[in-house]
Q: What sequence folds into this?
């Protein structure tokens, strides 16, 4: 469902009844005194002062009280992308509301909001017009009420700054005086709702828009998953099976129960194939504080059966996937005659690439709170997908969804991990089993080891050039375990839906193109990780195009433009495919536009002074994903000890129409950081089906010293329909780094993490401040 | 066990081995200090003990006993600390989870070194991970709070 539900008043009556987080907008441009959430836990779940049955409540998103106080719902999850500022202010601007009089209410999981799965870079891409319609419908009703009062035409009135103005006479009435009359009018039908010109969306496009939750965050009062306070709450930590599909054989409760503060030991239900979002099984230790629960778990002394994936090892799996792409796979893209073109070629370039499992490593480890009372379950969780969480809790408790309420806290990062509901239903199961409210706290080690990882990948790329040096053929094979394997058994080969991410939608000038999906058996839980399959496809394609340039003595930028070909919209026939899922978008609205991909390359190389790069080691890569276009240039410098540092980065994104530009810039900054992490350190490995890494010392991410001192984020001005922002910045970063390293060292690294293959070079270390400032060591 | 937390003397009946982090969060109910790794690897739990930036997740209560602890809630009564104001002005946070630890580490840095160089900033902040990637704004906000001019290309 991609349409936001526009409901009538009566259907929406309950729409504003519950919710965890209420935020107030700080005054634009002024230091705020009242922003942020007003409390924590259920105390903050009070409704608007006025019951929603009074006031103006034309849809599930907007409520204007009789005193003019306006409550706007944010139905998507805040995980750093700024959606709690963007959605409410977009609606408020359409409405003509004064941001100082807006309160933001975080929606619970409920089908009445339409799709709430905050994933796929979709919040603005899919709902831009519908969100605006909820504000516009409210505005039209207030204007109609004023026009009736003044006996003038509604078209002669406008709404701005919380009042309706009759333009010819300059008469004005505040919203508060119009609410009662407006509430009696019919809600405009979707077809008749008129949106404002975008130039009037002033607050959401203020480049200095304050953060809704900024003050709460910098003062420590913002409520994340573990910050929810409930009376009589107990803390649970769970000893989970170390390998996917393994089970406990025996364990010892005696010593665990002897730890002061430990209350109970509870067996979790064992999951059954397909894994879906089920809890992982294992043994839970419940205590009155986190420390006691952790100590109790350490005393459980569980013996585990190794399970069906005990043979899973990363080194052999890498070789298995490379073997897979050395044989034919399922042809999913085919145009021209690839075999003939390679037979006639005078130059063929060929390379293989490998990317391991990537873990999410979001700063907030998984956590959820649940209360089971009177045959109802209420949960508080940092979830990207409160509707799936509700479904999964209902399944675990064998209840109907109506008996389950899911409140959404702030997310301490999500990146796709928190769209899976496993950690939420663990809390619900334990709350019912223990009869008291429970917080399930994952440790960092739990989080690293029990992730839904990004799939391991191998690719083989070949390109052909004829005697005139023309690019004539492209042959791409990719092997990875699709995410579908988490939801169904015997899924081991990517489909059309999977290959849309950077294989099928790749604009290529060559008349002969073939892409094949190759087999990769399942041994782990595979899930979405920011940018998903685009990460490895962009890494291979972006590295390979750079290789083509050097193989032919050409400039990499010129080769990128040559490989992409002239600006044009690629049809399905041009691409050689029968269908393009296109992230749920039509090709009419979001075409495969070679011109836009070229344009971001031209812009980013101009900003980086590409043509004048003598003495600098620059790497370039570009990628289309989530129907946006991004190009990146990375500069790498060595010091005298041959330590490599990324000293400067340029990133240009064409995401069509954007709102809340500051948060788009911040997403580009974050994309650079995540791309750097993926490239330099990315990857967890498996031995006997168990993740080798456990915490940030061996599952590394970029630290401040890894981040370039100079960055340049650039948004292409555009009036095209909005496309994705959160994810499309990440994929081109890793290949741009690999290409910059090649420019400097002449060494082509075709596997992530790059740090493992730097040869005589290395990365700087970043000694971290420890406890040495007190007593020479606190541990 | 007695200690001063944000200017108030608190008496806690806890296991002396309990890390200060869990005492602050679970016993005192001050949830601004975050759990991120439990191994002094990420800095999300950074608080001040006698003015020094300390990772509360590996600081046992017996070592904090009798000392003065400041958490993010006690850095200023109302978010008026120069770093908090700079953080807001430059809109540093994305998800926000690591930011209390970032600010507490930065506050200890500025108390010792009021005008830090970029190298000094990177060295002091090396123990604080931000997975969202707010590093350029963290650097810029520390410079702003210190009254230093913005760097060219700092993204601001």
A:
């Amino acid at each position: 469902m991609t349409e936001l539900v526009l409901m009538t008043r009566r259907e929406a009556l309950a729409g504003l009844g519950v919710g965890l987080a209420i935020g107030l907008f700080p005054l634009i441009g002024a230091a705020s005194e009242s922003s942020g959430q007003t409390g924590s836990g259920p105390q903050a779940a009070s409704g608007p002062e006025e019951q929603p049955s009074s006031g103006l409540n034309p849809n599930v998103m907007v409520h204007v009280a009789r005193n003019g106080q306006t409550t706007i719902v944010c139905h998507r999850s805040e995980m750093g992308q700024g959606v709690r500022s963007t959605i409410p202010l977009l609606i408020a601007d359409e409405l003509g509301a004064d941001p100082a009089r807006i309160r933001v209410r975080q929606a619970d999981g409920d089908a009445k909001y339409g799709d709430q799965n905050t994933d796929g870079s979709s919040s603005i891409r899919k709902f831009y017009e519908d969100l605006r319609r909820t504000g516009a419908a409210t505005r039209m009703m207030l204007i109609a009420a004023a026009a009736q009062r003044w006996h003038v035409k509604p078209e002669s009135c406008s709404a701005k700054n919380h009042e309706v103005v009759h333009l010819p006479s300059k008469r004005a009435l505040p919203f508060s005086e119009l609410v009662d009359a407006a509430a009696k009018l019919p809600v405009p039908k979707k077809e008749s709702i008129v949106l404002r010109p975008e130039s009037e969306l002033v607050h959401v496009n203020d480049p200095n828009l304050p953060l809704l939750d900024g003050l709460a965050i910098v003062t420590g009062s913002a409520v994340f998953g573990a910050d929810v306070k409930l009376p009589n709450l107990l803390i649970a930590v769970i000893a989970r099976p170390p390998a996917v599909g393994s089970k406990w054989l025996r364990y010892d409760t005696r010593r665990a129960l002897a730890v002061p503060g430990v209350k109970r030991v509870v067996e979790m239900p064992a999951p059954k194939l397909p894994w879906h979002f089920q809890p992982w099984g294992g043994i839970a230790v419940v205590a009155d504080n986190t420390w006691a629960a952790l100590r109790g778990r350490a005393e459980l002394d569980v013996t585990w059966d190794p399970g069906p994936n005990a043979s899973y090892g990363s080194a052999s799996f890498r070789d298995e996937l490379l073997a897979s792409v050395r044989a034919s796979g399922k042809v999913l893209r085919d145009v021209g005659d690839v075999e003939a073109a390679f037979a006639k070629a005078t130059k063929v370039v060929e390379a293989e690439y490998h990317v391991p499992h990537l873990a999410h490593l979001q700063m907030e480890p998984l956590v959820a709170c649940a209360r089971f009372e009177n045959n109802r379950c209420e949960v508080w969780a940092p979830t990207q997908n409160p509707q799936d969480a509700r479904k999964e809790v209902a399944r675990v408790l064998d209840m109907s969804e109506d008996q389950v309420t899911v409140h959404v806290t702030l997310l301490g990062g999500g990146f796709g991990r928190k769209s899976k509901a496993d950690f939420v239903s663990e809390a619900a199961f334990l709350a019912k089993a223990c009869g008291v409210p429970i917080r399930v706290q994952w440790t960092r080690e739990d989080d690293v080891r029990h992730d839904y990882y990004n799939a391991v990948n191998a690719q083989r790329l070949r390109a052909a050039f004829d005697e005139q040096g023309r690019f004539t053929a492209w042959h791409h094979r990719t092997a990875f375990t699709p995410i579908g394997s988490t939801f169904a058994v015997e899924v081991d080969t990517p489909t059309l839906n999977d290959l849309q991410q950077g294989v099928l939608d790749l604009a290529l000038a060559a008349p002969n193109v073939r892409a094949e999906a190759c087999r990769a058996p399942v041994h782990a839980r595979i899930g979405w990780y920011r940018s998903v399959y685009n990460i490895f496809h962009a890494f291979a394609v972006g590295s390979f195009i750079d290789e083509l340039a050097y193989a032919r003595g050409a400039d990499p930028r010129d080769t990128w433009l040559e490989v992409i070909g002239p600006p044009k919209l690629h049809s399905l026939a041009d691409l050689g495919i029968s269908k393009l899922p296109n992230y749920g978008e039509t090709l009419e609205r979001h075409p495969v536009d070679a011109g836009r991909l070229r344009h971001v390359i031209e812009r980013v190389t101009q900003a980086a002074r590409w043509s004048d790069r003598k003495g600098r080691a620059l790497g370039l890569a570009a990628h289309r994903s989530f129907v946006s276009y991004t190009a990146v240039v990375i500069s790498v410098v060595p010091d005298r000890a041959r330590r490599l540092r990324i000293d400067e980065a340029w990133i240009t994104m064409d995401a069509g129409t954007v709102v809340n530009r500051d948060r788009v810039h911040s997403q580009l900054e974050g994309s650079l950081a995540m791309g750097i992490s993926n490239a330099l350190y990315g990857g967890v490995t498996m031995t006997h089906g168990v993740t080798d890494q456990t915490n940030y010392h061996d599952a590394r991410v970029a630290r401040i010293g890894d981040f370039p001192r100079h960055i340049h984020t650039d948004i292409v001005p555009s009036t095209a329909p909005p496309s994705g922002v959160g994810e499309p910045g990440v994929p081109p970063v890793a290949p741009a780094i690999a290409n910059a390293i090649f420019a400097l060292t002449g060494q082509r690294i075709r596997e992530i993490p790059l740090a493992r293959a730097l040869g005589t070079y290395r990365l700087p270390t970043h000694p971290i401040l420890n406890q040495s400032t007190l007593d020479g060591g606190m541990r | 066990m007695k200690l001063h937390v944000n200017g108030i003397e608190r008496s806690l009946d806890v296991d002396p081995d309990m890390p200060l982090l869990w005492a602050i969060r679970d016993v005192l109910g001050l949830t601004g200090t975050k759990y991120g790794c439990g191994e002094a690897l990420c800095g999300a739990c950074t608080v001040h003990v006698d003015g020094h930036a300390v990772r509360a997740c590996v600081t046992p209560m017996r070592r904090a006993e009798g000392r003065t602890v400041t958490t993010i809630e006690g850095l200023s009564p109302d978010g008026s600390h120069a770093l908090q104001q700079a953080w807001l002005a430059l809109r540093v946070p994305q998800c926000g989870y690591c930011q209390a630890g970032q600010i507490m580490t930065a506050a200890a840095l500025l108390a010792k070194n009021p005008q830090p160089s970029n190298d000094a900033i990177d060295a002091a902040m090396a123990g604080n991970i931000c997975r969202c990637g707010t590093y350029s704004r963290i650097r810029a906000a520390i410079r702003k709070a210190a009254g230093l001019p913005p760097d060219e290309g700092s993204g601001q």
